[in-house]
């Protein structure tokens, strides 16, 4: 299974030459495939099947993971039934990882079909695409994003972060101005009808325009008003995974190559200065990204081939 091979590559060779695969019961087949791949590489692998509870993780598991992290390979394959255990034990990307991330892999509750689509890809091609894209973005002093759906926004990026699903930055607070038309994904899938967010001085200012009778827009309105900083543009990300579907739920759609996404709210963990109780993303299809470089030159980023 290519997905299992790619996860084993991510874990690498832990100093202890040992690994734990911790999994929710519905992901047992995948867990076994990853364990077998690790064993084939000379890594002694143990498997831990999580029980049928949904509350925060027990202290013994949390303490064991924290004592092993960094020295021993750790693989978490979980469903939402064990999400609180996962977040309590190792943390979450938008709020910070609580343990050393060397030799750590977590799927963060992604469904099986989406997991296979996003992991059974050519890892070498994905790496090359990501590195080429980061090379183009690294010298950007300003970025303009337009899209056929009507998006047209400029922002000043900070340093770029990456995963195997996206490259992303925390825009400098107060710099973003323009319009975002959400036509890719809002939470569980494509919006019933595209809607726009007007950003001025880094903050959404047209909350009154959101349609409270539209379930997705009503959720956006709730999330943008959770606290004073919830409406701040906190992230700009670009999907890079060729296997991800743009019309899936958010966790997959924001990774899809040929999309970008805008995050709002909390961003302290990846370079921003905005503290909020929440963070959420919205996806735009077919963006055109214009990079204004430090030397004053301008270039267009082609997301079709990096």
The string of secondary-structure elements, in order, is: HEHEHEHEEEHHEEEEEEEHEHEEEE
Number of domains: 2
Stretches with pLDDT under 50, minimum 5 residues: none
Secondary-structure class:
alpha+beta
Q: Could you give the order of strands across the largest sheet?
A: 13-12-11-8-7-17-18
The global form is: globular
Largest sheet: 7 strands, antiparallel
- For the CA atoms, what is the radius of gyration? 20 Å
Number of helices in the DSSP assignment: 8
Bin the helical content.
Answer: 25-40%
β-sheet strand percentage: 25-35%
- C-alpha termini separation: 27 Å
Q: Tell me how many strands there are.
A: 18
Mean pLDDT across the residues is 93
At a glance:
By secondary structure, this protein is α+β, with helices and mostly antiparallel strands.
Overview of the structural elements:
GO terms for molecular function: aminopeptidase activity; metal ion binding. It comes from Candidatus Fermentithermobacillus carboniphilus. The protein is of the alpha+beta class and 306 residues long. The chain has 2 domains: 2-120, 3-Layer(aba) Sandwich (Rossmann fold), CATH 3.40.50; 124-301, no CATH class. Helix content is 25%, strand content 28%. The chain is built from 8 helices and 18 strands. The protein has helices at 2-11, 28-40, 59-68, 83-90, 112-119, 123-137, 215-224, 250-253, and strands spanning 18-23, 44-49, 73-77, 91-92, 96-97, 104-106, 140-146, 152-155, 160-162, 166-169, 177-182, 195-200, 203-204, 233-239, 259-265, 279-285, 288-293, 298-301. A 7-stranded antiparallel beta sheet has the order 13-12-11-8-7-17-18, with helices on one face. Strands 9-10-14-15-16 form a 5-stranded antiparallel beta sheet, covered by helices on one side. Strand 9 (160-162) and strand 10 (166-169) form a beta hairpin. Helix 3 packs across helix 4. The model has no long low-confidence stretch (mean pLDDT 93).
């Amino acid at each position: 299974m290519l997905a299992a091979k790619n996860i084993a590559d991510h874990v690498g060779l832990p100093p202890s030459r040992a690994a734990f695969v911790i999994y929710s019961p519905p992901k047992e087949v995948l867990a076994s495939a990853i364990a077998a791949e690790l064993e084939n590489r000379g890594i002694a692998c143990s498997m831990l099947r999580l029980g049928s509870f949904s509350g925060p993780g027990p202290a013994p598991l949390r303490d064991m993971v924290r004592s092993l992290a960094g020295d021993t390979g750790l693989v978490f394959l979980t469903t939402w039934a064990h999400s609180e255990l996962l977040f309590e034990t190792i943390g979450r990307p938008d709020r910070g990882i609580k343990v050393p991330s060397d030799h750590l892999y977590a799927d963060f509750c992604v469904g099986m079909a989406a997991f296979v689509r996003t992991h059974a890809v050519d890892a070498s091609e994905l790496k090359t695409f990501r590195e080429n894209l980061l090379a183009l973005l690294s010298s950007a002093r300003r970025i303009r994003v337009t899209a056929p759906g009507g998006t047209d926004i400029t922002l000043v990026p900070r340093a770029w972060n990456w995963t195997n699903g996206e490259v992303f930055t925390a825009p400098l607070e107060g710099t973003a101005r323009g319009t975002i038309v959400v036509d890719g994904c809002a939470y569980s899938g494509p919006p019933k009808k595209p809607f726009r967010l007007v950003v001025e001085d880094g903050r959404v200012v047209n909350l009154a325009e959101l349609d409270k009778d539209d379930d997705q827009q009503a959720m956006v309105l709730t999330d943008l008003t959770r606290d004073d900083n919830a409406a701040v543009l906190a992230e700009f990300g670009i999907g890079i995974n060729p296997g991800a579907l743009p019309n899936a739920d958010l966790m997959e759609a924001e990774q899809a190559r040929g999309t970008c996404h805008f995050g709002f709210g909390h961003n302290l963990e990846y370079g921003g200065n905005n503290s909020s109780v929440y963070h959420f993303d919205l996806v735009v299809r077919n963006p055109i990204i214009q990079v204004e470089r430090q030397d004053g030159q301008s270039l267009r980023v082609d997301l079709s081939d990096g």
